Amino acid sequence: MPATVETGLFAPSLVEATTRRLRDQILSGDLEPGERLIEEQICQRLMISRAPLRESLRLLAQQGLVEHLPRRGARVATWSDIDIAQLFEVRALLERHAVTSALPLISRDGTDPLAAVRAELASMRIARDTGDELATDDAHRAFHAAIVALAGNRQLDLALEPILLKLQRPMAVNLRLEATLHGPDEGLRRHQQLLTALETNDVDLVLAALADHGSQRYLSAHSDLGAG
Question: What domains sit in the chain, N to C, each tagged with a CATH number?
Fold first, then answer.
């Protein structure tokens, strides 16, 4: 291994790459909730030393994806059905606050205030068409983040980020089951409905669309995960 790694003076890019790889494995389900993260095995698999790995695990713990257990190391975070339901409730609260703060949306210098929301919905569609499930899930998370970002409130964005990361797998499970029950286009149709409501600049209409979006319930490995 490079000397800079052995001495603990590792490049930030190594930590970023390690964090991204582990996060993708957690969000894709390759690393399952509750699975122990054995440092020696991960170091061998990723060909890194323990110093950058431990920094990555610390960052993932801050994001709520990893739990550190006293004298037992780290594991992929687990959440109960109640935890997940409560996370969906908090997401809904933040989204409602964001849209009531943001609307009416005003175009400045001819720019489209909904450009980011449109882009993430397009990314969802492209990823779905290419069969890239993780890219679909990432775009799905980014779509909801883009709605909250309309408020222009950085603290709101920061509060939402770990919530959406924790919810990515439950949201993904819901999209898959929704596609099985109602066809592959249903998830995109529901998200398009949110975008269409935002285009009206009608607060009541958008809140109704959010409520309808959030009322969807699908059974999965968790008994009542919430909405997409």
Answer: 3-76 (1.10.10.10), 81-214 (1.20.120.530)
The predicted pLDDT at position 8 comes to: 43
pLDDT digits (tens, 9 = 90+) for 185-202: 999 999 999 999 999 999
96 contact partners, CB below 8 Å, separation of at least 6: 207, 210
Q: pTM of the prediction?
A: 0.83
Q: To 5 degrees, how large is the angle CA 47–CA 58–CA 27?
A: 75
Residue 73 sits at φ, ψ, to 5 deg, of 80, -150
Is the pLDDT at 41 greater than 90, yes or no? yes
Return d(Cα 166, Cα 206) in angstroms, integer: 25
Note the pLDDT tens digit of each residue in 138-150. 999 999 999 999 9
